[in-house]
User: Fold these one by one.
Assistant:
Number 1:
Amino acid sequence: MSGYRLTRALVLEDPQEVADGAGGFGVTWVALGTLWAEVRPGAGREAAGEEVLVATTLTRIFVRGAPEGSPRRPRPEQRFREGDRIFTILAVAETDSEGRHLVCHSREEAQP
């Protein structure tokens, strides 16, 4: 028994730069695949964004382990998507010495 309930399907997305047609670049998100996960919410706070208030919640997302370099291993700057919810990955660590599971420390932002 792993102790984790991987019951939520999250889409792992990677940022890709694309030309904006005016000499600059924009970012588009490319889906890499779906990972089963457990999402544990942490502390939340409200902060002023550029034009609106933004509610931020730190979360820990647990997924099955994958070796370094594997496209199934999340990395910082990638994100998880669950419908309209976005979880930006801040850091990734193995939960045990065998690397059976990973914990992705992430941030979810929402405009109240």
Number 2:
Amino acid sequence: MDYQTLQVELNGAVASVWLDRPEVRNAFNDTTIAEITHAFHALGGDERVGVIVLGARGAAFCAGADLNWMKKMAGYSDGENRADAAQLAAMLSAIYTCPKPVVARVQGDCYAGGMGLVAACDIAVAAEPAQFCLSEVKLGLIPATISPYVIKAMGENAARRYFLTAERFSAIDALRIGFVHATCVDEDLDGAVGAIVKSLLANSPNAVREAKRLVRDVAGQPITPALIHDTVGRIAVIRASSEGREGVRSFLEKRKPSWLAQT
């Protein structure tokens, strides 16, 4: 696909999806939403891809919604607003449910819907100068569509504060509340992301995919006989899988597994 608002690159097993509207601080509109949704569905189904990195060109990661798009939304009917929000929800779901691990590379300001993008990723690394803000209530709005992902990422207590106050907070604070997994100085950002990508690519692609699904399905569930039965079934299936058998054999034989044999 010829993207208008993104750059998509493939370097070996690493796909990079770059928000590419630096002139508007990578604020997104309906075109960006459709293109991100398409990109993550396409890359998720591409056998060449092992890891996806979501980053942004320019000084800001994402300023949230594009102002011109917001002006257009001001005149929407209820039905149009619901359809528009459904497209945003589909984009976030495409990232969150992507079968490939997704790493967010946050190099600058990350506001409103931009925080939804980061929260939908599996792992987030932020440069220390980055600033975060859930600014919706300043505009008389609420961060409704992004809330399932943001609350999962930062927890209910932090969400209660930042949803209500619309305060800006630092990358260090984002790390403290668990919204991001790591911070670093600007010049180390690519190295920090690269180290995580290297760790991900060292593992069984099938096991990484199933581990991602495991966290999504088990998190927050009560420990019931049904959940125990489900997890028993999952380990039995993956033990019998080709990569599961190969991984154990290679460990016992003190050699690289087949998915690393060429490295």
